[in-house]
Structure formats: structure tokens, C-alpha cells
Amino acid sequence: VSRFNALKADSAWQKLWEERRTFAADDHSPKPKSYVLEMFPYPSGRIHMGHVRNYTMGDVLTRYRRMKGMEVLHPMGWDAFGMPAENAAMEKKVHPGGWTRDNIATMRAQLKRLGLAIDWSRELATCEPDYYGHEQALFLDLFANGLVYRKESTVNWDPVDMTVLANEQVIDGRGWRSGALVEKKKLNQWFLKITDFADELLDGLESLDKWPDKVRLMQENWIGKSQGMQFRFALSDGGSVEVFTTRPDTIFGSSFVAIAADHPIAQALAAKDPAAADFIAQCKLGGTTAAEIETQEKLGFDTGIRAAHPFDSAWELPVYIANFVLMDYGTGAVFGVPAHDQRDFEFATKYGLPIRRVVSDGEKTQSEYFEEESFTGPGTLVNSHFLNGMDVADAKREVIRRAESEGWGKGTTVWRLRDWGVSRQRYWGTPIPIVHCEICGAVPVPKKQLPVVLPEDVSFDIPGNPLDRHPTWKHVDCPQCGKPARRETDTLDTFVDSSWYFIRFASQPGDKPFDRAVAEQWLPVNQYIGGVEHAILHLLYARFWTRALKRIGMIDIAEPFEGLFTQGMVTHETYKASDGRWLSPGEVVRKNDVLIEAEGGGPVTVGRIEKMSKSKKNTVDPEPIVDQYGADAVRWFVLSDSPPERDLEWTENGIEGAWRFVQRLWRLFDGLQAWEGEDKGLDRVLHQTIAGVAADIEGLQFNKAVAKLYALVNALEKALPSASRAHAIRTAILIAAPMVPHLAEEAWAAMGSDGLIADAAWPAVDPALLVDDEVTIAIQVNGKLRDTVKAAKGADKGDLETMALANPAVQRILEGATPKKVIVVPDRLVNIVA
Ligand code: ANZ
Ligand code: ZN
What is the ipTM of this complex? Predict the structure, then answer.
């Protein structure tokens, strides 16, 4: 019996698949089409285990659907623009383009070593002009249709690095690289009108029934539709302030009004009052993200202005400037109800403002509620005049009705979703195809002049945007009036690149972004697979971009991703040396059952099992593993151990077990002979496995499919020679082919089949063999299990009793005595009471 030589088989079959273009998707195929896509990788350097897991899942589905007779599009490309390339340029003095393209070459070769069924002829990299040039054209189409605009907005500015920072790059108010105190600066930036689609994007979620509920909920919260009311408070200085609330029912519980630091009233006050100006400056030092605002200490400045309560003008509320009120949500002003809002509660506690309960759930006393926190639950209105006794929903309606009829307020809807700011003051991104002219304003670059290509000769030795300080690149003539003008030097957020790559995969003509008819044949993506970290932004932007193209008549697809699957992470144990250094798995050895440092022999503590990461040094590089065990064993392991939506722990034992299984499967096949005779039981096991594995792959429950194949192989190893057994072994190879394609091809060829197993048909199932007509009966004596036996399903009670009494284990215990009683549960058990 031979061994499966994975290294030899892997490269031979990979070469053949490539030569024969086996996985090229045919746009004109008459077969039903399927589009399987995993989120394309960022070319960071090398493939990691998370990639292996992600791409193997999509691959199994692809290969399975091909065997089921579908034409499958399964492409691959590179999300190739972004910050890490510029960081590498600064640190290692390499060009971002060279660094990126080298990484792509390395990672492409690594992916090919996994034997993925990918149509490599459609490969694309977003950093190449033949991709981003088309993106520029699409940007201009959106611009021409009013879906792109420019406005002044606030950014985080690092005064030392002279660069704009993303929120994640601001740590405790300082630039992550320079450590300088970050300033807020106003810049003109480009925006995409995603808010125009807020309703559609929200409603569309309902149709996405093949998405995880949690992702839909996250999108819903991000879009954040709030129904409420907007109204004016008259102010003691003669002016007024408009507030937005989702809780008009709590109006009689208000004890202050608060405005944002950027609110015009605050700004006006700052001009005459230095204390107010100081407070506003202090507010600007704090973070701007919702999470930061939530956790910051709530601070306020009493303006001295008083607001009149709308239902009782004699009732005056102090007006504060407060750091927890955002200018760009609602109206930038609120009324505070400390009893029923936690931020207001903290604020009121700090500034000694009244805490007045107006909603009661009828159980607790006021002091119980309000010592620690506000009460935000449902209940009945109290202390609220004409609202008393109503529930919250009725009270909301009543306040809105009165405000509208008295003319001082109205019911409204507000959205949390903001327009998408796409300007980045960076080099390594898609240049925004606009020219700024003093006379004509912002002028689109004529389409025939696209792509606007990034200049190659840039330097990264001084801070700032290399495009901006390039000696010639930005100096161009205005396309409209011909006078000297300036190119836009901002580039597009890389999320724009990933918002339409799946369309370009489906169709990639040279002269336009895509051919509509061809793209519509493939789209939507039937199964999209990727990390849950993209559950909000990437998926929302891609949904928006697709809808925007639909609105301007470029494609008739509303939702780009029909099915979505978010896979879990790959984890590994962590190790620490006695001095607290993290150790990599390779730096640790086991000796006499304890772990010690390979170098130096010091004791090692085993830490938690965590997501593989460079910082904890608990990564395992896939490449040497593939070299050692072969692609099929690696594929088998990443599919096998846990449900795909959960984390998978990478262990040495696990990969060895997978390797042993691959060898077992090969041995079974290698021992195959022309046996004769029928084994009905085995036929049934086989057909149940075929049907079960198919259902599991379709449901993306790969670990279950793997478990069924294990069970089949166990049964085949035990089975006696028969024609049934020979047939089942051959069929086992077929249904394992999506998971272990190299072994499967090798076996398929050895069976003398012409053609590839990759092109073979999935075996048909005989429905008659799916019914289990044999059951396992437990034989008990005094309730204790003594043996199990097989019996025909539905066998009658008397037969089962006779069989049980004749059982050798039972006879030994009874020693000839007559049992007191025999209880028979048909199809389940026989219990003998002695
Ligand atoms: C009075 C009130 C009473 C409120 C109460 C809540 C509870 P969502 O649901 O997230 O939309 N708010 C309004 N504009 C704000 C702004 N620019 N910055 C900070 N907070 C703002 O939240 C709406 C609620 O958040 C509004 O309802 C308002 O406080 C506050 F028992 O008004 B509420
Ligand atoms: Zn001009």
C-alpha cells in the first residue's frame, strides 16, 4: 500500500488546472450561474491562517456547485491601496507600489499552493490604473448625477506630521506616530450622498434573508433611524433654540437645555465671553467618536440664558453648552431629562440640577431609581399634567399633536447615518479626478483623459501628502477654460475601491468599468464570505454604491450580496517566557510533559487561546505547514474542527489528525479491488452520506460535512469486501473532492477516468436508500445497559423480547432465573427487570 505523496500531487494538479483553465468562468455558458466570492485580501505581505480558512470555505462551495452542474464565478483580486504601503515606504524606504506588487506576487503564489478553484484570468488589483481609472469614471458619473459634493468639514490634524488622521489613529488625543496633540481643522472634502439612500438601505435589509441577523441589526443601528419631534424653546435673550428629541413624552421631566460647542449660540457667546470660549476650546480636545463621547466625563458651561418651557412659559430652564451634545446630529441642541436619560443623569448629578421622574413602572420608589442611574424603560406617565396615566407611546403622540396644532414643533425623523467623506490626504489611493480652477471652480477631468495616474516619483522622507508637494503633478490647465489650474490632490478612501470590485470581476472590458448585460448575468453575488469586522462599513458602502449605480441607470441590481456568511477567527494558544516576553509556538518545546523555551530552556506559561496576531506572537505561517502536510490536509483541518462561524483553534494535533485522515482515505482507495456481492447496509450509509454532505456544504456547515466523511471512512474500513464497498470507496473520493481536491484528482486518474474530477458530476442519491430501516436497540437489565443490537425498524414487541432474552450478556446475568418483568419500547430499548 502506497502513501499519498501530497507535494507531488499538489503541484502536478495545480499545474494541470492552470493549463486547462479549468476554473475559468464562461460568461456565455448555458448552465445556471453561481457567483461565489470571498472578501478580497489586502496584500500585507504573506497569507495568514484566516485567509486560508476564508478561501478554503469559498473554494469548497465553488467546487461543489461546479459538480452540481453550475457555471461558477470564483475570482480573486487585491485590495491594494491603503496606509500600510505608505508606512512601509516611510519605514523601509521602498516605493508603496513596489512593496504592494511584491506582496501580491508572494501571496498569489501562496494562494495557488492551496489549490483554489479560482478564475485567475479575472484577477485585479485596485492600485492599477486599469482598475482605478474606471473607478474615477464612476466617481464622475455620480458627480454628474448630484451624488457627490464638496463641503468643509472637521478633520483630526497632526501638526507635526502635517497630516490628517483617521479617528483610529488618534490615541488619547495625540497622533499615533508623532505623539503631538491633535488639532481639529476644517478642510474642504469630498462626500458621497449615502444619506439619500438611508431609507432604501434600511428597507433593503429586510430582503436579505440569507444574511446573519446580527449583521443586519448592526447595519440597522448604524443607519439609525429615530422617530421624534423637533421644537423651539423661546430664550430669555429674545432668541430661540431648536431641539430634537425622541422622547417628547418626557417633556415635563426636563430640567435643562444643552447645546453643542459648535452651536451658533455657543459660538456667538464665545465671541464676547472668554470663559465660554475657554470651555469650547476644552471640548474640542475630547474625542469625536460616539464611543468617546459616551465615556467622557459630562461637562457643561452655564450660558446664563434661560429657556421657557413650551407648556408653561413661567417655567425656566438653564441653557448649558455641553460636551456630550453633537453638532451634526439632530439640531445640535437637546433638552435634558435626568430621570430618564443616563447622560442627562450624570450631567444633572454633577451640576445639581433637579431629577424629576415622569415615567413610572409602578414598582420602585423615586429614591431607589435615581441614586445610581436613570430609568429608561417603559411605563406610565406621572407628574405630567395632561399626560398623566398615558403610556409612553400615547404620550409621545399627544405631545406631538399639541405642538403641531399650537405651531411650535413637529414630528420628524432623524438618521444617524452621515454622508460618506471620501477625501484622504494620502498618496497611495485613487486620485480624485477633479481640477480646481479659480474661474470655473471644481471641474471634472474629461473622461477621455482618464485615468488620472499617480506619479511614480514621490518621496516619503518628509511628512505630509506627497501628491501635494510633487513639483509638477498638480499643475495642469483647466479642462474648461484652459487657464492654469490645480489638480485635486486628495485620493479616495479605499472603501470606494472595495465598493464595486465584485462588479468588475463579473465583467471587465477595457473601455468602461463594466458591461452591464454581462455583469447582470452574474450578479448579485450568491454567496459572499468574509470577516465580521466588515459587517458595517464595507458592506454598507458596497450596498450604497450598487444602489447609486442603479439609480443613475448603470445597472439593474439593488443588493450586491444575496447571501452573506461571516466566518470566525483562527486562534492559537499564547506563550510567555518567565520575563514576560511573548514566545511564538516555534520557540516553545515540550519536555517531560512541561513546556519550556526552546532556546535557554526556561519555563513557559501557557496563556489564553487568542486570535492569531503578531503582537502576541501566536501566529502560524501557513506556507511551511502546506509544504509539510500538503494542501489537502491543511484544507481539511481548517474545515473540520469547529462550525465555520465560530473561532477555530489551530493545533499541531489537529493538523496531524487531518494529515492522517488524508492518508487513510488514500489507503482505502489504494486497496480497492474488483470485489463482488452486495452490502445493503453499506449502500444505505453511502447514500445518506452523499445527501448529508451535499446539504452540509450548501448550508456552509463544513465541519458537519467533514464529520460525515469521517464516519463513512470508518464504516468503509470495517466493511467486508463487496461490490458495494468498492463502489462506496470510489464515491467517497467524489464527495470528498471539494475538500481534498488533489488527492481526489490523483485517485480519479488512477481509476482510469478521463477528464478531471473537478469537472465530474456530483453522485446521484437513491431516495429509497435514505430511509433508515434498521434501528439500534438498547438491551438493559434493571435499567443498566448491557448490550446493543440491530433490529428492523418497527419490529414487533414480542420479537424484540425474545431476542433480548436470548442475548448472551443477559443470560449470564439472569443465570437461568425467570425475569420479573420485561419492558419493551419499540425501536428503542428492552429493559429486563430481574
Ligand atoms: C429628551 C430625552 C429624554 C431624550 C429622555 C432621551 C431620553 P437617538 O435615539 O439616538 O436618536 N440628542 C438629540 N440630539 C442630540 C445631539 N446632537 N447630541 C447628543 N444627544 C442628542 O437619541 C435621541 C436622543 O438623544 C434625543 O432624545 C436627545 O435626548 C438626544 F428621557 O431628548 B432626548
Ligand atoms: Zn477654468
Answer: 0.88
